[in-house]
């Protein structure tokens, strides 16, 4: 893992995400090494030659770039983070996310955090000071052996669920981002049943195999789950209604369980 310290020119940027006005990424790159990561496209803009997941740049001056005297973000949604995790292991050393949160509190944004790390618990004291704050954990599986296959350097599944419980107990709004849904492997119903006591709502995203992601997925399938390779190939490279049916099943289940949810599915096949 190549770690670099850099100076950023800005830290709060306009968002292209459907539910956020602005995003903050305290780091460039990621340490989780998720098999399915969509953010690897960022290498086109960062100039890094190392493989995605093998480098991280810490934006040392990030907290200093947040103005203390502005009403620009009051009532606006700010999301941490869109192309990294604000709670990478490096955050224990650099404290960039914590310092950013301290700067954001008086600006009164609607704060959203999505992470795969229980390190977020460190900052409960700050998160509770936001008038509007929600924290979510990404879960693609409850099987920690599978978790090690697809996202080897993330927090164990049970650590995330325990962190959700603690956040909920602290009065912070919580959610679970179930994604990516891996066909025949992600038991999304059981994820809901196991976390419904500590999650206020759910988001769902299916596996997207655009760009180089399919290369990673097919290598993994052939090595770890060869019986699924042909099934995945048919789902993604033939005309079928697999994801349309999955979406309807999610809607039906969530309504039956009286679960609040949003679905962010990619229906387009890989070109």
Question: How would you explain this protein's 3D organization?
Answer:
The chain is 32% helix and 20% strand. The protein starts with a strand and ends in an 8-residue tail after the last strand. It has ten helices and eleven strands. The chain has 271 residues and is α/β, with parallel strands linked by helices. The protein has one domain: Alpha-Beta Barrel (TIM Barrel). Strand 7, helix 4 (124-127) and strand 8 form a beta-alpha-beta unit. The chain is globular and about 55 Å long. The longest helix is centred in the C-terminal third of the chain and has 15 residues, at 242-256.
Total of domains: 1
CATH class: Alpha Beta
SSE pattern, N- to C-terminal: EEEEHEEHHEHEHHEHEHHHE
Residues in helix, %: 25-40%
State which percent range the strand residues make up: 15-25%
The stretches of 5 or more residues where confidence is low (pLDDT under 50) are none
How are the elements arranged and paired?
Elements: E1 2-6, E2 12-14, E3 22-24, E4 27-29, H1 43-46, E5 55-59, E6 77-80, H2 91-94, H3 96-104, E7 110-115, H4 124-127, E8 132-139, H5 144-150, H6 157-169, E9 173-181, H7 188-195, E10 201-206, H8 213-224, H9 226-237, H10 242-256, E11 261-263
Parallel strand pairs: 1-5, 3-6, 6-7, 7-8, 8-9, 9-10, 10-11
Antiparallel strand pairs: 2-3, 4-5
């Amino acid at each position: 893992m190549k770690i670099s310290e850099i100076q950023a020119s800005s830290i709060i940027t306009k968002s292209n995400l459907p539910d956020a006005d602005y995003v903050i990424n305290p780091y460039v790159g990621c340490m989780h090494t998720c098999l399915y990561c969509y953010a690897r496209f960022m290498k086109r803009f960062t100039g890094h030659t190392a493989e995605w997941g093998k480098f991280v740049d810490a934006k040392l001056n990030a907290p200093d770039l947040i103005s203390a005297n502005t009403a620009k973000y009051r009532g606006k949604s700010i999301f941490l983070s869109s192309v990294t995790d604000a709670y990478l292991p490096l955050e224990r050393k650099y404290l960039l996310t914590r310092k950013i949160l301290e700067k954001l509190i008086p600006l009164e944004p609607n704060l959203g955090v999505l992470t795969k790390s229980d390190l977020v618990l460190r900052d409960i004291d700050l998160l509770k000071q936001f008038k509007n704050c929600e924290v979510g954990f990404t879960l693609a599986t409850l099987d920690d052996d599978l978790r090690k296959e697809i996202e080897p350097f993330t927090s164990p599944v049970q650590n995330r669920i325990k962190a959700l419980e603690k956040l909920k107990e602290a009065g912070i709004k919580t959610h679970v981002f179930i994604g990516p849904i891996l066909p025949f492997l992600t038991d999304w119903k059981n994820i809901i049943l196991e976390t419904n006591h500590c999650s206020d709502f759910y988001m769902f995203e299916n596996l997207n195999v655009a760009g180089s992601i399919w290369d990673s997925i097919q290598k993994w399938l052939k090595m770890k789950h060869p019986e699924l390779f042909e099934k995945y190939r048919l789902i993604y490279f033939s005309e079928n209604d697999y994801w349309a049916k999955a979406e309807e099943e999610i809607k039906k289940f969530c309504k039956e369980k009286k679960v609040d949810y949003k679905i962010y599915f990619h229906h387009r096949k890989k070109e």
